[in-house]
Amino acid sequence: MDYVPQLKQQHEILVDYLDQLKSCWKEKNLLQFKIVCAQLIGALRDHHDRELELLFSKAPERGLQQGGPFCSYYFEFFMTNRPLKAAEYWIKKLTGKATIVQVPDAINIYFTNNSQLTIPLEEHLALGALAQALFENIEQAPSEILSEAFYYFEDLLKLNLKKEESCLWVLLQSIMEPQYLLSLRK
To answer: Which residues contact 137 (CB under 8 A, 6 or more apart)?
Structure first.
């Protein structure tokens, strides 16, 4: 799994930013929260772009349904707790406005084709949209709503990282072409 060290390092950076955000939140340091949140948004974008480049765009649809027990557990969670719907709910609570998170053209094909990869991609969209809403509304949203939205974001990010490490990367490695995996060693 030649891509794993690189992606794992990005996960560690995301967890570090998350820990910093929690500390800022507990200390009520909203300015520092906003600074770290902006850094986290950039790190999320970089990580999700890297996964799309290294993995999702190269993964064959064939074999994605054979996820195994960990993937089955996460699929059930995904179906009962749709991340985009939850993010839209929290964004509405933060902003007072109904929001629909848009699927970018670059990944719309996965949604159109009902790919199994829509599960992590939907989580990625939800995380990005919710992080942006937290960043933009930290000064004006009620602190109770901010707190609940932040803790939902934290739980979703942790679940996404755990799922990628215990399910997605292992599954993709087992079904991807050996030649492609060898090309990642560059």
So the answer is: 94, 95, 146
Cα distance between residue 104 and residue 112, in whole Å: 12
The total of structural domains in the chain comes to 1
Give φ, ψ of 120 to 5 degrees: -70, -35
Cα separation, 37 vs 158, in Å, equals: 16
How far is residue 111's CA from residue 101's CA, in Å, rounded to a whole number?
13
- pLDDT, tens digit (0-9, with 9 covering 90-100), for 52-101: 888 877 776 655 655 555 566 566 666 678 899 999 999 999 999 999 99
> 87: domain range?
4-183
> What letter does residue 3 receive in the DSSP assignment?
T
Is the CA virtual torsion 81, 48, 158, 127 positive or negative?
A: negative
Give pTM, 2 decimals: 0.86
| φ/ψ of residue 140, rounded to 5 | -110, -20
Which spans in 55-117 are helix H?
68-80, 83-95, 105-112
